[in-house]
Write a structure and sequence with these properties.
Chain A: Pfam families: BPD_transp_1. The complex is a heterodimer of chains A (304) and B (315). By secondary structure, chain A is mainly α. Chain A has a single domain, classed as MetI-like fold (Orthogonal Bundle). Helices cover 74% and strands 1% of the residues of chain A. Chain A has a two-stranded antiparallel sheet with strand order 1-2. Chain B has 315 residues and is mainly alpha-helical. In chain B, helix 1 packs across helix 13 and helix 12 (262-272) packs antiparallel against helix 13. Classes of the chains: A mainly alpha (304), B mainly alpha (315). At the A-B interface, helix 1, helix 3, helix 4, helix 5 and helix 6 of A face helix 1, helix 3, helix 4, helix 5 and helix 9 of B.
Chain lengths: 304, 315
């Protein structure tokens, strides 16, 4: 074992095993992520119906998406509105819930479980449930509640002005428990001494919250907001299950059309696979930009 | 029974018992009131689902609706009074009568179960192998590989939807179990999490085993995997829930009824059957889809919360 040749042979054997152990993950990672990603970039520059070979079209898909396609512009507008509203409201409520139910006694733990329940429930089941709750009949749960206050039955899912608010409601209802769990952990890691020191200096509860809690929660807030944004941009099931009509994925007047449902519609209903790939890359760029902003914010905060 | 945050932290900074700072119990109670009210809006939809499941067809579109089923029944699962040839008012197909496949809805539950278990076990095995090499072997290129995998976490997976569909079609894997499983095995976030975890485990344990003459595969199986157990538990909960509820990929992959998982079967129920009289059977399907994942969560709640917190706050 002492000769250099033996050492190097030994090392090669070690590395051989190492690469063999890496192989399953790397092969699948390359085959079903890296290669498809590159392929999708290529397809986004082509006209491709899935049957005949892709036909190179340069930037045509992107030109059409950005300048000619009203439905896509509509989908982008809807998505941004939905993302801002659902992440904004959802984050505020998550923080509120964590402040309200962050304790270790059983009432708080039960409450946390209740708010977290949607996160572990089948999302398709929840969407079907919402569709049933917003049934246009006067026997629907939403219309029954409206009836208690003397209102008349509402066509919840067929009124374009209500589509985004309902989507935001479903998203906030389903997602605030997840943010709450993160905020509870964040609150728990703030040393009590900081509050004691603040109290000795005569800080009111509001000042303590404003000057101690909020700044120390900033990393958690960044994480909740960024993951929320990324998740919200990818919304699909809510639109597909609750709002899709017989021949239109986006609901009445496309009022619920979003990026991923439109991708699905173009790619897998109309089989415009090149065009769908271009939509996928627009989504990629949006999410990549958010991740980058997140990294920069994180670095800036560390330098402070 | 509930989300105990970080009672036994694995690698994250320990969290003190979360106490609400600077607030007396009385004033806190008043501030909490709106959130207690909000919890009613959390319960109400679930309750509505539950009572819908047990209402007979004639009670589903009654106005005003009943808030306790007046004639509770299991007909929404299987209705013995239904006959395809003879119209029998008040009777419709139950959930298990609606698909022309063997075992009806049970077939989809079986599919979901098999797929979920296979992907969970498989992805944890291959990710733990790779994580072991990346953290404990000095092989050339490991940093680059890890960097690529981390970078891929910024990619929305929908970007690969079209090419992966084409790959599945060319391989003849549409509508097959391998079409569900194989593309889902390499999970970057699992590898990332396991690497973080393994960094905190001292190399001496592994060195000692090497000195004793154990091979690398044996070290992985007998030392690394047991050490990783808490991390594997946390990750397996994420994977199980994600795969059990996976929808968009199966929607594209599956053509026949036989190969549908539960979410796809539910979506098909939703497009085949409209109208209030069908909602009992549809909600029954929703209940069967949700109960296992809720039970799973309640059973492993501690690991789950810890997993969220670890992957969130360290990532």
């Amino acid at each position: 074992m002492a000769t250099p040749a033996a050492v190097s042979r030994h090392r090669w054997r070690r590395h051989g095993t190492s690469y063999l152990m890496l192989l399953p993950f790397l092969a699948l990672f390359a085959g079903f992520l890296v290669w498809p990603l590159a392929n999708s970039l290529y397809l986004s520059f082509t006209k491709f119906d899935g049957v005949t070979a892709p036909e190179f079209a340069g930037l045509e898909n992107f030109r059409r998406l950005l300048f000619d396609d009203d439905r896509f512009r509509h989908a982008l507008g809807n998505t941004f509105l939905y993302v801002v509203a659902s992440v904004g409201i959802g984050t505020l409520l998550s923080l509120g819930l964590a402040l309200a139910f962050g304790g270790s006694g059983w009432p708080h733990r039960v409450m946390r479980t209740v708010f977290f329940l949607p996160s572990v429930t089948s999302s398709i089941a929840l969407m079907l449930l919402w569709k049933w709750i917003f049934n246009p009949g006067d026997f629907g749960l939403a219309n029954t509640v409206v009836g208690w206050f003397g209102g008349r039955a509402v066509e919840w899912l067929a009124t374009p002005g209500l589509t985004i608010p309902i989507l935001v409601l479903m998203s906030v209802w389903g997602g605030m428990g997840y943010g709450m769990v993160l905020y509870v952990a964040g609150l728990g890691s703030i040393p009590q001494e900081y509050y004691e020191a603040a109290r000795i200096d005569g800080a009111t509860p509001w000042q303590q919250f404003r000057r101690v809690t909020l700044p120390l929660l900033r990393p958690v807030t960044t994480y909740v907001v960024v993951t929320g944004l990324i998740g919200a941009f990818q919304v699909f099931e809510a639109v597909y299950i609750v709002f899709r009509g017989t021949n239109n994925i986006g609901g009445v007047l496309d009022s619920g059309l979003m990026i991923v449902p439109y991708l699905y519609d173009q790619g897998f209903t109309h089989f415009k696979l090149g065009y769908a790939s271009a939509i996928a890359w627009v989504l990629f760029l949006i999410i990549f930009a958010i991740s980058m902003v997140n990294l920069r914010i994180g670095r800036a905060l560390k330098e402070l | 029974m509930a989300a105990a945050p970080l009672t036994a932290p694995v690698t994250a900074p320990p969290a003190a018992a979360p106490r609400r700072p600077g607030s007396g119990a009385r004033r806190g109670g008043l501030l909490r009131l709106p959130f207690y009210l909000l919890s009613l809006t959390m319960i109400a939809p679930f309750y509505w689902m539950l009572i819908t499941v047990f209402k007979p067809v004639t009670e589903l579109d009654r106005q005003p609706p009943s808030f306790v089923p007046e004639h509770p029944t299991l007909d929404n699962f299987y209705d013995p009074g239904y006959s395809p040839t003879q119209v029998n008012p008040g009777h419709l197909q139950g959930l298990f009568q609606r698909f022309q496949v063997d075992f009806g809805f049970g077939r989809f539950m079986f599919n979901s179960l098999v797929i979920t278990i296979t992907i969970t076990v498989g992805s944890l095995l291959i990710a733990s192998l790779a994580a072991y090499v990346i953290t404990k072997h000095r092989v050339p290129g490991r940093r680059l590989i890890f960097l690529m995998i981390v970078a891929s976490m910024m990619v929305p997976w929908q970007t690969t939807l079209v090419p992966n569909y084409v790959i599945m079609r060319n391989l003849g894997w549409l509508d097959t179990y391998q079409g569900y499983v194989i593309p889902a095995l390499a999970k970057a976030f699992v590898l990332f999490f396991l690497v973080q975890f393994l960094h905190s485990i001292p190399d001496e344990l592994i060195q000692a085993a090497r000195v004793d003459g154990a091979g690398e595969w044996r070290i992985w199986w007998r030392i690394v995997l047991p050490l990783l157990r808490p991390a594997l538990a946390a990750m397996s909960i994420f994977i199980v829930l994600a795969e059990w509820n996976n929808f968009l990929w199966p929607l594209i992959l599956v053509q026949s009824d036989e190969m549908a998982n539960i979410p796809v079967a539910l979506a098909r129920l939703n497009s085949y059957f409209t109208g209030a009289q069908n909602q009992g059977a549809i909600m029954a399907g929703g209940l069967l889809a949700s109960l296992p994942s809720i039970a799973f969560f309640l059973a492993f709640q501690r690991y789950f919360t810890r997993g969220i917190v670890l992957s969130g706050l360290k990532g």
